[in-house]
Amino acid sequence: MFVYIVRRLLQMIPVLLGVILVVFLIMQMVPGDPAVLLAGEGASAETIAKIRTQLGLDQPVMVQYFHYVTDVMTGDLGTSLRSNLPVFDEIMARLPATIELAIASIFVTVVLGMVAGIISATKQYSAADITIMIVALLGVSLPSFWLGLSLIYYFSVKLQWFPVAGWGTWKHMVLPAITLGTAGAAIVARMTRSSMLDVVRQDYIRTARAKGLREQVIVYKHALKNALIPIITVVGLQFGFLLGGTVLVESVFAINGLGRLIVDAIRMRDLPVVQGGVLIASVIFVFVNLLVDVLYRYFNKRIDLN
Predict the structure, then answer these.
(1) Residue 224: phi, psi to the nearest 5?
(2) Which CDD domains has this protein been placed in (predicted)?
């Protein structure tokens, strides 16, 4: 296991270099000049040229990329062009809110999705099964911004149960977590149902029933444990999607998180902040994938990680 983890960590290096390169090249194609934005309207050509030289924007693209990668390897993510603050400090100030939102959302995804999937699988073709699958289909289809606005209207404006926007208490987490976790819960529910149906038809489940074991023991101790592998895969991927999906949700609920920071940086062509934010999100996503692979081995000892 240790050798496998080390090998995966080493494989992260080319992946992250590729991520930096792709984001760097995309930002080069975005209209607008950061030097012009920083100089302000009516600035002279000499002032703009001076700013470009100070920022290194007058150098070839690959030279700029090489310098950035070299700085990242030393732990320096650069300085924000907009605020003139270290990028790492800006990201760390916003990242906790995004992590909290992602964890709360994945909790909603796992709990709602697995409970709904187990009920649907154990009551196949029943009214409960059909209802759950219809709701799951709606959950996947609903846009997150529409669902968020609807939840705000009913639970914040009408019922006044939760705050309209902001971040700081558990009440602020509820509506954004439901908004972000609903689509994932629908996907997990469908996967749980499919995986459980495959497992409950196995011979050892019939043997367990023949021995007179209680149905709850069969479902949760024997069937669910062996059905978790594909579910873990989906949950791991959903966590990565949640990090990306926080952009819209943070905008709807006015949460100052990483997604909102990246969007604001894109508007201002603040390249160091965009690259730093995407890099941090990519590192988190890669580590989550590594955790998923380790959990494979934990729940199924027969899986070979070599």
Answers:
(1) -65, -40
(2) TM_PBP2
Does residue 67 lie within any of the structural domains?
A: yes
DSSP state of 167: -
**Within-domain flag for 286:** yes
Whether 49 and 161 map to the same domain: the answer is no
- Residues 31 and 102 both lie in one domain: no
State the Rg of the chain over Cα: 24
Tally of domains within the chain: 2
Chain segment 283-297, per-residue pLDDT in tens: 888 787 777 777 766
List, for residues 14-58, the tens digit of each pLDDT value: 887 887 788 777 777 776 667 777 776 667 778 878 877 877 777
Rounded Cα gap, residues 247 and 259, in angstroms: 4
Are 184 and 270 part of one and the same domain?
A: yes
Contact indicator for 180, 110 with CB cutoff of 8 Å: no
The tens digit of pLDDT for each residue in 151-180 reads 888 888 888 888 887 777 888 888 888 888
Q: Which residues of 221-254 are buried (b: 16+ CB within 10 A; e: fewer)?
A: ebbbebbbeebbbbbbbbbbbbbebbbbbbebbe
Structure tokens at 250: 């943070």
Structure-token pair, residue 242: 């949640």
**Residue 33 resides in a domain:** yes
The pTM for the full model equals: 0.76
Which uninterrupted H or E stretch holds 28? helix 2-29
Give the tokens for residue 230.
């594909």
Q: Is 263 helix (H, G, I), strand (E, B) or coil?
A: helix
Query: Looking at the DSSP assignment, which residues form a beta bridge with residue 86?
Result: 79
